[in-house]
Design goal:
Elements: H1 2-10, H2 12-17, H3 30-36, E1 50-54, E2 58-63, E3 80-85, H4 86-106, H5 113-122, E4 133-137, E5 143-147
Antiparallel strand pairs: 1-2, 2-3, 4-5
Helix pairs in contact: 1-4, 1-5
């Protein structure tokens, strides 16, 4: 749970807003794959080759077939894709991250690498929250999100936590 949560937190905005690049027959860049392919979560676990990317409105979760012979005990022999609205995936990722943080806190762990990254996400003023937010351009041109509910514990339009 912890390595996957760390990977989701570290790559949160890239997963939500970075599209599948046009490769024109070339292989995808390793740097992009490490942020979008769950097989790169690592940490000694076997993760499925699920590639996650977005067009800004929808998220694609694509299970890829194992393309090269390897020694892994699990081989993926088929490809399947699921396309979901971005807010549905965002909501579930944020709920998963919150659950992981709560469980670690309950065990007395307060500053794991995951929690450090998660807290940086949670207090960014432009975070898209679990509560549906409205995007607003401020006078200086920066984008902010305004929560439709008060008391969410998330940043408000003026940067204060509600």
């Amino acid at each position: 749970m912890h390595p996957l949560a760390h990977w989701f937190a570290w790559n949160f905005y890239r997963l939500l807003y970075e599209p599948l690049p046009e490769t024109q027959g070339r292989e995808l860049a390793l740097e992009w794959l490490m942020a979008h392919d769950m097989a790169y979560v690592g940490d000694g676990f076997l993760w499925p080759p699920v590639r996650i990317y977005s067009d800004g409105a929808r998220m694609t979760l694509r299970l890829n077939r194992t393309q090269v012979p390897n020694l892994d005990p699990v081989q993926y022999t088929n490809t399947a894709s699921v396309i979901l609205p971005i807010r549905v995936v965002e909501d579930q990722i944020l709920r998963f991250l919150k659950t992981c943080d709560t469980r670690l806190m309950d065990m007395g762990i307060k500053d794991s690498p995951f929690q450090v990254v998660y807290r940086e996400l949670d207090f960014e003023p432009w975070l898209v929250t679990l509560d549906k937010g409205k995007k607003k351009k401020s006078a200086n041109g920066e984008s902010t999100f305004i929560s439709e509910k008060s008391g969410t514990g998330r940043p408000s339009s003026n940067g204060d936590v509600e």
